[in-house]
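ok so for the tutorial part 2 we go from a plain amino acid sequence to predicted structure tokens. step 1 is just haveing the sequence, like this:
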Amino acid sequence: MAAFLPVTSTDIYVQVAIPVPIRQLFTYKVPAKLAAKTMQLGERVIVPFGSRQVVGIVLSIDESTEYAPAKLKSILSRVNDNFSFSPKLLHFIQRCSDYYHHPIGDVFQQALPVLLRQIKQPDIELPQVWLVKEPLDETQPSMIAKRSPKQAELLSFIKQHQGMTWSELLTLGFNKAQLTALEKKHLIHSETRAATLFKWQEQALQKENRLELSAEQAIIVATMKEMQAQFSCHLVDGITGSGKTEVYLQAIEQVLAKSQQVLVLVPEIGLTPQTLSRFEQRFNVPISLHHSGLNDKERLQTWLAAQRGSAAIVIGTRSAIFTPLHDLGLIIVDEEHDASFKQQDSFRYHARDIAILRARQLNIPIILGSATPSFESLQNALTGKYHYHQLRKRAGNASTAKISLIDVAQQQMEHGLSGTLKQAIKNTLARGEQALIFLNRRGYAPAINCQECHWVADCQRCNKPYTLHQGQGLLICHHCGSQKRIPAQCPSCGSVRIKPLGQGTEQLEEKISALFPDYSTVRIDRDSTRKKGALAKLLTEVANKEHQLLIGTQMLAKGHHFPDVTLVAVLDVDGALFSYDFRAAEHMAQLLVQVSGRAGRASKPGKVMVQSNFPDHPLLQDLIHNGYQHFAKQALIERQQALLPPFSFQALFRADANYPSYPEKFLRTMTEIPLEGCQFAGPVPAAMEKKAGKFRFHLILQAKSRKQLHQAVFKLIYHSATNEWQSKVRWSIDIDPVDLSW
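step 2 — the prediction. this is what the tokens look like for a chain of 742 residues:
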């Protein structure tokens, strides 16, 4: 908490960050009745703004103001709930606002849990935890196991940890019915967990689950131990299955032993169950979760547990970086290359980059882990800015999966599968092993069309085809979210011969099930995992070999451990080989290597088969024969020659409007402003020119140095106020863009 400021004047004025897209603070008077002299930086206040009331953050307290006091509005009330931003967290969020040139009030809004943004303050409840009733009859678990193995597994988890929250159990794949059943049998009970400061105890470490480190792993852990008390950034570049998680666990152990907290960032909610399970098996300490699968109350509890110091480990997706941890000692960013760490709307921050900023501010170490490091991180490691650690051997007896290319032009195709691939799947299933079929296209089909007149069902707001979702009986636009029912006949010619065009995961599941009827098929994508706990449930079923054929999108491509998957089939990689985006090859290589890494992770050898119309493409050949390391280093040389990131720095200006000429003219006016050391590219129509009824244009600003880029952006923002087209467009800035298609 910030210390009280000494104030002697009777009049107190505060500058408040308001959640609006305006780049300024707003000044208010503090009435004496609100105990103005005890006002603190970082506290929340309720203020009038126009015709409404909003929650703002106090960022400055003064005894004087440049405005006429009589014209200033007064704050209405203070939010006295013992939560305010610490000075360090305040400074961090302000730095983020400055770096990304985003309105400060909106940044604070996104950094706060939903319930703390509201006028009506929430009832802050302590979390309920579940415990096993003592003494437990030793015969009961075995009796339950015969009738309900899942209940027995749940009982074992609760017994092991004696204090698990419902959000943890849900993430691990358990449900309310199983919990209620054990409660009715008087085997478990719930109680309120007191908010006590986390203190390390030796018995908190489950030593029997601790693995012996390889020489490569031991060096990393030893280095981390030496550099515990200072800022250092470590890139752990380890092939899939090389034991990066074990390195994380032993590095975490060192920090927890000092009674400090650890923040672990994962790119997607899909990796949370596995990460939580591994951590629960190793540490009997309070673990809090922060991701979109939790409700607002559960996320608030995580915030409060972190702030009070009762949470030892916080695991979350990108927004968890703003969690107010009491005594943070280590940050881990798993799968640091993943584009999901970049927020693609509103406040466009990159969680990995600001995690490094936060670690530097707190003077603590940070670990970036990946089998396919981003080019930015790899370049920083190669030039010595980061400590570079490599893991080149798979853990245990596992061998690296062999990758082979299938030329689909030379094959008879059936449902998107070549004859060679079908035979490989058949052989895999016959051996009692699992196969993963990767297709990064959800839905039943990417379009529907009329067989008579060739009409295609397009979203009128985006000028893009609707995706067919057969199971829901809907056509859904994946760009703007609009939906419509599947037409019974063609609206153009009246024909009833309307058929799907192309293939998505939903259709692939149907066809695969028909091709291999004796085996169980499961589809894992955003559609099949919408319900709470659905993903964890499906992953558990896969681990238990209830399904032999796995079909999925990129949700399955990263981080997951499937010991019995020995064949990975990639149906289509061609799209990225001829993209306008200079990062497309990098993203394609990362995705291909990551999905390939799901094969042969245990003692069984793995095989990866990639279908392509261009098997001789130099990018594919280099990646498959020489590996990601060689591919990345060659690509970095090309980037350097072309003066592209990471050898230059970019800002992307986006503008949209109801008419195509408005955003183009707005951005073109920007290019007329003289800037030192910078070049413009554009304005050009966005890759998807129309979205949700708006016409979109892009303008790229590139500079040789970060300083020059930010000076230029400041200048452009300043001049935008006098731009005659400014009122006719909606525009935004994206610093260090990673995807030019948005």
